[in-house]
Amino acid sequence: MEQIEYKLLTRRFDIIDALSIDDYIAQGGYTALAAAMKMKPEEIVEEVKLSGLRGRGGAAFPVGLKMDSVRKADSEVKYLICNADEGEPGNFKDRYLMEKDPHQVLEGMIICSAAVGAHKGYIFIRGEYTRSIYIMSSAVQAALEKGFLGKNILGTGHDFEIEIYTGAGSYVCGEEFALMLCIEGNPARSTYKPPFPTTEGLFGKPTQINNVESFANIPSIISMTGAEYSKIGTKDSKGTKLVSLCGNVVKKGLYEVPFGVSIRDVIDGPGGGPLQDGILMVQIGGASGPCLPPDMLDIPLDYKTFADQGLSLGSGAIIVIDRRFGVLDIVRNTLKFFKHESCGKCTPCREGIYHLLILFDKFILGQAEQKDLDTMMQLIETVEQTSICGLGQAAPTALKTTLHYFPQAYMSGMRTNRSRVI
Amino acid sequence: MGNNENCQCTNCDMQEIAPLPSEIIEFIDVCAKGERPESQLIAILHKVQLHYGYLPRPILDDVAQLLQVPTSVVSGVSSFYHFFRLTPKGKYSISVCMGTACFVKGADKILEAIQSELGIEIGETTGDGFFTLEQSRCLGVCALAPVMTINGKVYSQVTPTRIPEILSQLRNDNMPE
Fold first, then answer.
1. pLDDT confidence of residue B11
2. What is the predicted pLDDT for the residue at B35?
3. Domain that holds residue A335
């Protein structure tokens, strides 16, 4: 079953010492940077476009297009940000990427900076990830000493410096505008788009902001060419995806698979199958992701397939939940999480989630009426469509998908239904 | 305690607080002279919290003064982020991860076990100032679920039955000889 995995970003994991830049170089590290420095910026962008790489943070925006907009933006000062504020419950891929192969991430960032013309970069790491902060800081120092960072990188005249920025415990900081506000020293309360970061980002300047995994893909794309990279995966989703597999499975861990592999393949293959109680449901992508019933696990990990079903692949976590739990328990925990993490700026998110939880508790107590269900459905739509940022827009996803796939769980929480049954 | 010997509370401005250490003052000075002083505010608050264990009100006023940013901004930032504490915490800060992966591994049972063992609710500190109980969001070590941290040290695959043992161990470590 091992062939399900495809080791591209994880190929050096546990083979090299993360704190040794020499180990990384001995395994072919920084050769992609050397190659990229001989290319014109537009050629680098072209390779990334050809590769079909899409943002791995959850929004899945094509990375090449974003680079192109920033490259073409008319500004002397541009910034580059690596979003390492991994806070989505169930996800640990960025932590592994930073702690097991930090230079791969740095190399991707440096190549990207040369392509878009940014001279200052930030790695925004959440405060709880103390080991990641330590390893990335050491890696930045080592890269500076070797001349891969700093002034006149590899004698090409390109300058690029990286600052590690530590967050202060706020889930919403994973949202790009909130994150930039945090770096600027404000409370992380997101704002309306447009303008997008590519035109008015950090300190009002054009900003290339991507997830850790997106940057980690760039050295491989340059080394193997975009055309070759695009042969991995499916027609609509190129490359590999890091999957954080956790919950009630035998072998929890981080696995790298090509797009197109089904959720069940991951759980039964490298994951060693579910625990004995059997799968109740699987939550994809983290707290903001959909909850799928066991009969839907054969759908492939693929942006288009997911989108066709009205779902989002998110950042790639697979949380297996077995039959010892009730659907409502899990959803309640998710709603409580969002209620706590809402920044409070916009009413649909702040008040909407609060009231969804109140309505939801009626189902837990078995006291819900038809009108509660109707109000809840309406409120879900309002929160999804009118919240300013991704947090509010995604907050009711678990609730909405369980209402759709597990209606019986909600029916049993309704007073009228119960009286009818008796 | 100076003039306020009668004040027994752990959470008021009457309590005397040691002034900011010189290295933090120097750091703030460097930031204040830099290009964007306010963008260093969170980094400064991290240092202050590391030193005091929390962010004392009078010190926040000092930070605002030194950095030349409004007190409202400092107060807004320090109360917004969960990582910053505005009240002192116990000697041991217990944080139980309530992320989905830990939840499906029984994190709520862990939390209940600690609550009944210590007799405190989430966010509270025991009367002897020993333990503070908190819940955290996902710590990204889901493969070791359920996890809790005590002063940053990760305890993995915790079970409710292990809780009394872990807590009494910590208490015993601090008993006078």
1. 53
2. 87
3. 327-411
Same domain, A290 and A371: no
Residue A32: inside a domain: yes
Best to test chain A binding among B103, B111, B136, B147 (most A CBs inside 10 Å):
B103
Q: Which of B100, B111, B141 to mutate to test the interface with A (most CBs of A within 10 A)?
A: B100
Phi-psi region of A235 (alpha: psi -120 to 50; beta: other; left: phi over 0): alpha
CA torsion through residues B29, B30, B32, B38, sign: negative
Residues A39 and A147 in one domain: yes
Residue A199 backbone phi and psi in degrees, to 5: -110, -45
Of the residues A273, A297, A322, the one at which a domain ends: A322
- State the best of A13, A128, A133 to mutate against chain B, taking most chain B CBs within 10 Å: A128
Asked if residue A37 belongs to a domain, the reply is: yes
Q: Are residues A21 and A105 in contact, defined by beta-carbon separation less than 8 angstroms? A: no
Contact at 8 Å (CB) between A119 and A146? no
Distance CA A257, CA A8 (A): 9
Q: What is the pLDDT of residue B4?
A: 44
pLDDT reading at B6 higher than 70 = no
CB-CB under 8 Å, B142 with A166: no
Q: Which CATH number covers residue A225?
A: 3.40.50.11540
Complex prediction ipTM: 0.88
Residue A139 sits in the same domain as residue A179: yes
Report chain A (422 residues): mean pLDDT per 10 consecutive residues. 83 97 97 97 98 94 97 97 94 96 98 98 93 97 97 96 92 94 94 93 97 98 97 96 96 96 96 94 94 96 93 92 93 95 96 97 94 96 96 96 96 71 37
At A103, list the tokens.
Answer: 């230079």
Residue A12 covered by a domain: no
Q: Kindly state whether residues A342 and A406 are assigned to the same domain.
A: yes
What pLDDT does A2 receive?
Answer: 46
| One domain for residues A85 and A129 | yes
Across the interface, of B36, B80, B101, the residue whose CB is closest to A187 is: B80
Task: Look at residues A302, A322, A342 and tell me which one is the last residue of a structural domain.
Answer: A322
Closest residue of chain B to A189, computed from CA coordinates: B80
A187·B81 Cβ contact <8 A: yes
Q: Which residues of B touch A (CB under 8 A)?
A: 36, 38-43, 45-46, 73, 76-77, 80-84, 98-101, 103-105, 108, 136-143, 145, 152
pLDDT for the residue A419: 44
Q: Cβ contacts of residue A374 below 8 Å, gap of 6+?
A: none
Q: Where does the pLDDT of residue B5 fall: very low under 50, low under 70, confident under 90, or very high at 90 and above? A: very low
Q: What is the CATH number of the domain that holds A344?
A: 1.20.1440.230
What integer pLDDT is reported at residue B18 of this predicted model?
A: 92
- The distance from CA A147 to its chain's CA centroid, rounded to whole angstroms, is 30
How many domains does the structure of chain A reveal? Answer: 3
Global pTM value:
0.92
d(CA A17, CA B55): 38
For residue A123, being part of any structural domain is answered with: yes
Taking the CA of residue B163 and the nearest CA in chain A, the distance in Å comes to: 21
Q: How far apart are CA A220 and CA A229, in angstroms?
A: 8
Average pLDDT over residues B3-32: 76
For chains A and B, what is the number of CB pairs under 8 angstroms? 126
